[in-house]
Amino acid sequence: MEGHSPTVTDATVQAGDGPAPVQADIRSHAIQHDQGITAVPEREPSPGRRITPRPTFLENLANTRESQFMFDRQNSSELDRYFHGPRDLDKHSKWPIFLRMHGSVLPKMILPLGFVAAWSTLITLISRFVHNLGINNILLTVTGFVVGLALSFRSSTAYERWADGRKYWSLLIQTSRNLARTIWINTAEREGELGKEDLLGKLTAMNLILAFAVALKHKLRFEPDIAYDDLAGLVGYLDTFAKDAHDRDRLQPQKKTLWKSTGEYLGVSFAESNPRKLVKRSKKPLGHLPLEILNHLSAYVDRCIANETLTVSLHQAQAINGLASLNEVVTGTERVLDTPLPTAYSISIAQIAWIYVMALPFQLYSSLTWVTIPGSIVAAYIILGLATIGSEIENPFGQDVNDLPLDTYCRQIALELDIITATPPPNVKEFTVRDENLVLYPLSMDGYNEWKTRSIDDIRAALRTKVVANSPAAMGSDDSTVIGSVRSKQSV
After folding, report:
1. Secondary structure string (H, E, C) spanning the chain
2. Region (Disordered): which ranges (predicted)?
């Protein structure tokens, strides 16, 4: 969280040597107070405590939420941060929306528009100096209607998939909040050493809730490993297929050439890589990490029920239903990811759009002559731009600017879990009896203890007066007069 700056003292691994042995807990923690930050000294390993080597995927861990979810992106170029995600929702642009390039498909339209400009120029020159190739523009009306239907279908289906992806991630955030509250507030902590185990078990479960969201994000982006900065520290201790299949070389993609990077920015299909290439390169079973995390969460809930720290049947049902909702999120997002628009539709819509654009100069020349060239470019930008937008948002879980900001959602869950776990479960007897608890605010500024000395009839009479004071007829009266009348009435 912000305000915390834990110092990472992981042992440095020398080249050619295995991971250096490290202490089981060597991170220093910072406790923020009103007047500063006090560092808690590192604990010395107790005699006899076993020292184990740190796995290779735990060598470099994030030490802040910003670095955990790659919002700093220090190794990225300005061009990459501008045209690629994850999108930072906190940034604000004052440019008029029609002049913004961040999120625009214009870079991907440069080559198609250049081709249309060359094509319309060729047709115009031939028609002007060789032979008139102009035809009746009645085709604009006939074929334009078909193109409009095709683009409308393409845009609506793509946006529907984008909206479904957002709905499932909203359900994930909602379920994470409910499940975290059930675990932290409604699960009891026993006395003594058992209570310490219960507290650490709660924290483990909270980390698993966050790990589920992060693991789902990576799975939807076809990133099958666990050694990512935002995931390794959360699930590195679990026995999972992804852990067994860990391959450090797979985490270090080959450096892109200038031609490949330029081709990706311009939307050249030959420059695009297969998004599933990392999955296909794996030589071991990758398993299903989000599902495996759910198995561990389910085991934790069963343990809480067995040791009678989660005894209320309603809370037990809430926890189990929360796990079922998380499983629904996995299934729904996989449905969105794995069922794009059928290929026949995609090919046909692309062909219809290009046929219409290629035929435009023939239909426009008789009426526009030299204006045919800019007219064709403008029409092509409108038609091909809508088709390109539909193609880009069809998969809402990728790294494009217009895709869903999954890193932001995961960071939101992480910060909210930090807020929940920052304080012990609230004690009702403690916070209700405070003098600052203005139980009849804004009618009366007296606190809980002041009203506790009065009778039930006085409290109910004040509640009735509160309704009268808030009526439209009393809205123009002086608040101090209303409060004073209540106090005088109670003193009689």
Report:
1. CCCCCCECCCCCCCCCCCCCECCCCCCEEEEEECCEEEEECCCCCCCCCCCCECCHHHCCCCCCHHHHCCCCCCCCCHHHHHHECCCCCCCCCCCCHHHCCCCCCHHHHHHHHHHHHHHHHHHHHHHHHCCCCCCCCHHHHHHHHHHHHHHHHHHHHHHHHHHHHHHHHHHHHHHHHHHHHHHHHHCCCCCHHHHHHHHHHHHHHHHHHHHHHHHHHHHHCCCCCCCCCCCHHHHCCCCCHHHHCCCHHHHCCCCCCHHHHHHHHCCCHHHCCCCCHHHHHCCCCCCCHHHHHHHHHHHHHHHHHHCCCCCCHHHHHHHHHHHHHHHHHHHHHHHHHHCCCCHHHHHHHHHHHHHHHHHHHHHHHHHHHHHHHHHHHHHHHHHHHHHHHHHHCCCCCCCECCCCCHHHHHHHHHHHHHHHHCCCCCCHHHHCCCCCCCCCCCCCCCCHHHHHCCCHHHHHHHHHHHHHHCCHHHCCCCHHHHHHHHHHHHHC
2. 1-20, 473-492
Considering only CA atoms, which of 210, 166, 212 is closest in space to residue 333?
166
First-residue to last-residue Cα distance in the chain: 53
Considering the entire predicted model, what is its pTM?
0.80
Short-list 35, 30, 38, 34, CA closest to 7:
30
Q: Which of 27-36, 60-69, 206-215, 480-489 has the lowest mean pLDDT?
A: 27-36
Q: Note the pLDDT tens digit of each residue in 456-469.
A: 999 999 999 888 87
Amino acid sitting at position 385? G
Kindly tell me if the per-residue pLDDT of 443 is higher than 90.
Answer: no
The predicted pLDDT at position 242 comes to 86
Other beta carbons within 10 Å of 48: 5
Express each pLDDT in 371-383 by its tens digit: 999 999 999 999 9
